[in-house]
Amino acid sequence: MDLDVFVTAHRAEWDRLDQLLRRGRHLTGAEADELVALYQRTATHLSLIQSSAPDPALVGRLTQLVARARAAVTGTRRASWRDAVHFLTAGFPAAVYRTRHWWIPAAVLSTLVAALIGWWIGTHPEVQASIGAPEDLREMTRPGGEYETYYSSNPAASFAAQVWTNNAQAAAICLTLGAFLGIPVIWILLLNMVNLGIGIGLMSAAGRLDVFLGLVLPHGLLELTAVFVAAGTGLRLGWTVIDPGPQTRRVALAQQGRAALGMAIGLALVLFVSGVIEGFVTPSGLPTWARITIGIAAELTFLTYVYVLGGRAARTGEAGDVDTADQSARLPTAA
Questions:
Q1: Where are the beta strands (DSSP E) in the chain?
Q2: Average pLDDT rounded to a whole number, residues 230-254
Q3: What is the dihedral of CA 309, 315, 321, 322, to 10 degrees?
Q4: What's the whole-number average pLDDT of the chain?
Q5: What secondary structure does DSSP assign to 36-82, as a single string?
Q6: DSSP code at position 152
Q7: Are 202 and 128 in contact, with CB atoms under 8 Å apart?
C-alpha cells in the first residue's frame, strides 16, 4: 500500500467524519446516516492501515476518530439495578457453571493433596518435630489451644471483615495472575492446602481431628469452594494464553478477562458470606452438628444457585461477559 496515496484518497472522508462529530446532536437525518457510513468506512481504513502500513501518528488519529464515532453511533449506557440483578441471577452463576470443568478437578485434586499432607504429618512424628518444638505443638493442639481460640481471638465483626479481606485478596490474585500460564494459581492452591494439611495432621496426631473439622467445616466448605472457583477461572485464563481456540489470542483473552473480573465481584460476595459464618457461627456456642449443618446448607445453596440458575443461563448462551453493546468494537479484518 502506498500510504501517501491512501491518505490523499480518504482524507476528505475523515475530515467530514470529524466535522459531523463536532456538531454532536445537531444533525439532520441524512447527516446521521452519513456519519454511520463514514464510521464504518473509517474503521475499515484503520484496519487496512494497521495490517499493511502501520504509521503510528495516522493510526493514533484514526483510532481516536473511530472511538468517538462509535460512541456517537452506539450512545452511552449507564449501569442500572437491572444490570446488577442480571449479573446475580444469570451472569455470575453462568460464568461459574461454565468453568466447572476447571474448578471441580482443582477442588478434588487440592482436597486430596491436603488429605495426603495431613496423613503424612499425622503418622510421622519426625515430620511433626520439624514443624515445631513439642511444647509449641501441644500449645497449638490442646483443648483451648491456638487452633480453637483462633476463631474467637477478635470481635466477631472485625474478625469476619479480616477473613473476608484476606480470602478476597487470594481469590483476586488467582483471577488476575492466571494469565501467567496459571503458575501463580497452582502456587496459591498449594500454599492453602499445605496450611490445611498441617492443621489436619497435627490435630489428628493429638487425637482431636473431630474438633478441628468441627471448626473448619462450617465456613470452610463455602470458603474453599470460592477459592477453587477462582483458581479454576485463573487456570482457564492461563490455558487461553496457550490455546485461544478459534478466536485470536487477544479477543479470547479479553473475553475471559472480562468474565474473570465479573467473577471477582461475585466471589467477593460469596466470601463475604463465608466470612460472616467464620466470624459469627464457627466460634459460637452452638453444638458442632448445628455449626456443620449451617456450613453444609450454605454450600448446598451455592451449588444449587450455580447449577440451577447458572446452568439455565448458560444454556441460553450467557457466558458472564459484558453485553455486546458494552464491548470494544472489533475492527474489520483486512483480507
A1: none
A2: 82
A3: -80
A4: 84
A5: HHHHHHHHHHHHHHHHH---HHHHHHHHHHHHHHHHHHH------HH
A6: G
A7: yes
Q: Cβ contacts of residue 209 below 8 Å, gap of 6+?
A: 122, 200, 203
Place of cell 483486512: 334
Q: Which residues contact 261 (CB under 8 A, 6 or more apart)?
A: 175
Q: How far apart are CA 253 and CA 251, in angstroms?
A: 6
Torsion angles phi and psi, residue 170, rounded to 5: -60, -45
First to last CA, the chain: 13
pLDDT digit string, tens, across residues 18-74:
888 888 777 888 888 888 899 888 988 888 887 776 778 888 888 888 888 888 777
Alpha-carbon distance 118 to 167, whole Å? 22
pTM, 2 dp: 0.70
CA dist., res. 98 & res. 88, Å (int): 15
pLDDT at 275 over 50: yes
The answer, yes or no, to whether residue 239 has pLDDT greater than 60, is yes
Q: Tell me, rounded to whole angstroms, the distance of Cα 17 from its chain centroid.
A: 39
Q: Determine the pLDDT at residue 335.
A: 39
